[in-house]
Amino acid sequence: FGLLVNGRDSGMVYGAQQEPGWTWQDGGVHELSGAVGLTLHDKTGQFGRCSSVILTRDLNYTPRVDVEAFKKERARLTGVSDRIRRGKAYDVIVVGAGPAGGCAAIAAARMGAKTALISDRPVLGGNASVEIGVPVQGAAKKHHGKPVRETGIIEEAGRIELAEGAEKALGREARHFTVSRPFEQMANAEPRLDVFENSWLEDARKEGAQIREVILRDTLTGERTVLSGKMFIDCSGDAWMGYHAGADERVGREARSEFNEAEAPDQADGITMSGCLRGASKDCCRNFFYTTAKAATPQPFNPPPWLYDFPEVGWENGRGTGERLLGIAQHGTWWLEHTGDIDDLWNPEFARDELIRVNYAFWSHMKNKWPGRDQLANYSMEYIPFMVGKREGRRLMGDYVMNANDALEGRTFKDAIGHTGWSLDVHAPKGILSTIGPNGANLKIPIGEIPYRCLYSRNVDNLLMAGRCASATHEALGTVRIEASCAVTGQAAGTAAALALLHKTTPRGVYEKHLDELQQQLLKDDQHVPGVPNRDPADLARDAEVRASSMRTSAMAGHMVQKERWLPLSKWHRGEFFRWEAGKQLQSVKLYLEAAADRDVTLHVREAQDGNDLSAAKDVATITRKFSAGAKEWVEFPVNAVVSSPYAWLYLEAVDEVQWCSGAPVRFGSFRIYKGKAPSWTTVEVSSMVLQLNPEPGGAVKWQPANVVNGVARPTLDGKANCWESDPGRALPQWIELTLKRPSKVGAIHCVFDTDLTESLPTQRRDPFPAACVRDYTLECFVNGAWQQVVRTCGNFQRFRRHQFTQITTDKIRLTVEATHGAPTASVFEIRVYADGAPALMG
User: Fold this and answer.
1) Mean pLDDT lowest among 20-29, 474-483, 570-579, 588-597
2) Does the pLDDT value for residue 234 go beyond 70?
3) 763 near 684, Cβ under 8 Å?
4) Interval 751-772: pLDDT, tens
5) Residues near 26 by Cβ (< 8 Å), separated by ≥ 6?
6) Is pLDDT of 50 > 90?
């Protein structure tokens, strides 16, 4: 880059001296007088950058290069004191404001702890911020049709983002899913939470085995502040607080012998997963890897000599072909990564530059060598973002180190605090140069558990960690690092920190003496803890008698179609994937069809061994029915065959002049499928085909009112609905009523509604308000012989609602659902009743 003096180039080219790292470069002697304009000028477009410009009359002056001396000289010349200013004292200090840190801080503050949230950026959200825009994905993305999405604070944030995005969207597509706005909104609503943005953690001070203070430097002014605390949570991604505190740590890959992980290398090394470059558009409505522009004429790209050369053989493995690869070339993708031996931790700027190099190398390959390069002839590279979405850095060691086998085998833990479900997504160590494909092994895992012992340091007594900093091996990090899992560990860490203060103990002490209380508090705050039901002794509803105005008894009915859409069979095989009770006979199937001409319609039924298995080539049954022109009706196909697998799927053969209705509510464990000439099936998880199974899968499962107090606030993987649902044949409003064992003081009621946990939050941008979610409702208490309204809510879009009101004495509580976001039935998973909803204050 250059320096313009009053608009004229000074004649020097800076940054071309071939020295590694930051250094000073002499700009020569200039005569300046009066008002002078100095302008940095990027000459190459390769992100030339400058930290400081010094003007001096002393021609013998040489500024220092080493960092500490530079800091002192900068303080002297700018007048910003390097003295450390004393800040506030806090109960809990959280460093890092991504999904882990944001959830940790909000959880701790809601528990009554005076909390500080430290972010080195000007926005909250970390990788999931508007700056970088990594979507909050989790178990639901990898377990299609299963109700396994992570809930709690991240669900609350996601629903806020989806609702606001829906209001601001142009047309049908909402803005890109990030958590910056909801985290800011939620943080501002917590009076016990202070947010420190643009604050870099510079150091941590200890007394013995405990951290006492952290030192922050303002990234804009250079000012330094010290904050004192009692509990500390490291959610910085690279575990910088743990590093400064001397916590036991690991970087890189463990040897196979350490944990018997099949994909681990023979010898331990320092290889980590590369991040990738991402950025936001000007309106923050979408995020991208890079952008290109199409011109009317060919746009050549002459590659600079510093680009990567891709391997001649094998580089294309797993990277796509044809139209898919063309789209990737135009917009970039997640596997534009550097090799894993580049140090993201201690040399992040160089690592970022390597990613710029990767992006240009890929663009050059696609423009100049790819067989389909003619399709890119008129395209030019427009912009490469400069923010890195990191995947791996330093990990802190806890009392337990989660490993790949824990995830692969779905191991259970008595100290579970949440679940995983994303695959062991450990990227190829050679990044863009990999010939084994970009994903590495990427092993699918069952829904598993995260132990609490992974969330506190084994040698720093008051340090917890969450997200990428958690105690896990490199291989296990492949699932723990995913944004929704980070949020789960963050909420657990924040809750545990507050409980440790409440009981005057350490995070380890919470594990040893207060584990059940931790798990119950997480459930109370709507975070799913596998295998742990509601045992909260303060919940007055646990032994209540429950009745309702009506109850659903059938899993499907024709009048339950919400958004009727007729899908032609002329070019497509169409079908449905669904759960089944293995070994049970499927007697018949009814499909809602329409015909424009007389046709034979053929149905195929096949088995499936898991929740996304479409590999079966043999039919359990094949049935052909004649269908008459002009008919629009239910058509029954007698099957009378035993389905021996836990899942099954059916489809109609492609046939002209026939349509099949879609738009049914997505039944538990189901999704629709279709296939044209291609050999593989396409799955669509957001809607179902209109059909009836006889018998319905999980036929013994009822939607009885008592489900709202059975201790489980979501559908389970074995098919239990665990909710009350009203009769779809009876119009809303519908009510559900709890009768307590005895008249009690009541000041808080918690409700859990249905926001369709089978879909990931980013996927729900298409329909940000799930049809089954309760929209308008009232809560009433029976007082002195009459019903007294205590809550009236309109426009709800949240799954979990906590209502507090002036305490009254009652023995009956009634929830009346007046409207949903489209479903004809009222659906409620849980109702809790408390004497008081206020948190226990830390003091």
Assistant:
1) 20-29
2) yes
3) no
4) 999 999 988 999 888 788 999 9
5) none
6) no
Tell me what the mean pLDDT of segment 742-748 comes to: 97
pLDDT level of residue 418 (50, 70, 90 thresholds) = very high
- Phi–psi pair at 531, nearest 5 degrees: 75, 0
Separation of first and last alpha carbons in the chain? 55
Cα–Cα distance, 647 to 664 (Å, whole number): 19
Residue pair 92/497 in contact by the 8 Å Cβ criterion: yes
By three-state DSSP, how is residue 467 classified?
helix
SS (H, E, C) 10-38: CCCCCCCCCCCCCCCCCCCCCCCCCCCCE
Contact between 533 and 158 under an 8 Å Cβ cutoff? The reply is no
CA atoms within 13 A on the CB side of 455: 36
Cα 252 to Cα 96, 258, 272, 395, 669: the distances in Å are 21, 13, 5, 9, 37
Of all residues in the chain, the percent with pLDDT exceeding 70 is: 95
Neighbours of 294 (CB within 10 A): 12
C-alpha distances out from residue 71 to 77, 78, 322, 705, Å: 10, 10, 52, 66
Is pLDDT of 282 > 70?
no
Buried b (16+ CB within 10 A) or exposed e, 235-259: bbbbbbbbbbbebebbbbbbebeeb
> 667 burial class (0-12, 13-18, 19+ CB within 10 angstroms)?
buried
Q: Of 149, 143, 181, 148, whose CA–CA distance to 162 is shortest?
A: 181
Contact status, residue 129 vs residue 518, Cβ threshold 8 Å: no
* Cα–Cα distance, 641 to 588 (Å, whole number): 9
Paired sense of beta strands 545-548 and 734-753, if any: antiparallel
Residue with tokens 């991504």: 98
CA angle in degrees (0–180, nearest 5) for 579-580-581: 140
Chain centroid to Cα 716, Å, comes to 21
Q: Are 105 and 115 in contact (CB under 8 A)?
A: yes
Please give the average per-residue pLDDT across 57-67, as a whole number. Answer: 89
Single-letter amino acid code for the residue at 115: T
Backbone angles phi, psi at 484, to 5 degrees: -70, -35
DSSP 514-575: -HHHHHHHHHHTT---TT-----TT-TTTT-EEEES-----S--GGG-SS-EEEE-SS-EEE
Give the tens place of pLDDT for each residue, 663-685. Answer: 766 666 688 999 998 888 998 87
Task: Give the pLDDT score at 666.
Answer: 65
Q: What is the C-alpha to C-alpha distance for residues 363 and 300, in angstroms, rounded to an integer?
A: 11
Q: Show the tokens assigned to 273.
A: 């997963």
Write out the two tokens for 823. 């479903």
